[in-house]
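User: I'm writing a tutorial on reading structure tokens. Could you give me a worked example: one chain, its sequence, then its tokens, then a sentence or two explaining what the tokens reveal?
Assistant: Sure. Here is the example chain.
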Amino acid sequence: MGWGVTQALAQIQTQYKLPVIHAVFVYEKEEHAKVRCLDRTHNRGREAAHTAMKLAQVMRSLADCS
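And here are its predicted structure tokens:
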């Protein structure tokens, strides 16, 4: 199941030259999800967005080198 999604996202990233961050968060309790996703210091969604932005910068700098 997960491999198909991962493969499709990799294809999108390669085809469109856009960073794609694949993150799946699994929590047993709603309280755990709130702490890890809504907290100012440990926001996994924000971390994924920052990763995508940094990856876009790297991809852009590599494109400038060619």
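What the tokens reveal: The radius of gyration is 15 Å. The mean pLDDT is 85.
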